[in-house]
Amino acid sequence: MEKKQFQLNDIVEMKKQHPCGTNAWKIIRMGADIRIKCEGCQHSVMIPRKEFEKKMKKLLVQADAE
User: Fold this and answer.
1) Helices in 1-66 by DSSP H: which ranges?
2) Mean pLDDT, range 30-56, rounded to an integer
3) Residues whose CB falls within 8 Å of the CB of residue 37, separated by 6 or more in sequence, listed in order
4) CB atoms within 10 A of CB 24
5) Strand 33-38 to strand 56-61: parallel, antiparallel, or no bridges (unpaired)?
6) 25, exposed or middle or buried, with CB in 10 Å at 0-12, 13-18, 19+?
7) Residue 65: pLDDT band by 50, 70, 90 thresholds?
8) Cβ atoms < 10 Å from Cβ of 28
9) How large is the average pLDDT for residues 31-44?
10) Distance between CA 66 and CA 54 in Å, rounded?
C-alpha cells in the first residue's frame, strides 16, 4: 500500500466527519502525534501518527511549499 503524503498546514479529509458537520481538517502540528483542527468549528484534536494515517481519507488542499 502506498504511504500517504501530507505536511504541515495541509487540509485533509478524514473518513468520519466531525459532529459539527464538516470533515475537512487542517494539520497544525506534526511529530509522533499529529494535531488537527476542524475547519468548521476550529476544535483541535491530537492523535497518534499511525492512527491519523489510518483515518485520513485524502488530501484536499496542499500547503504552499516555501
Assistant:
1) 49-55
2) 95
3) 25, 26, 28, 43, 44, 45
4) 17
5) unpaired
6) buried
7) low
8) 13
9) 96
10) 27
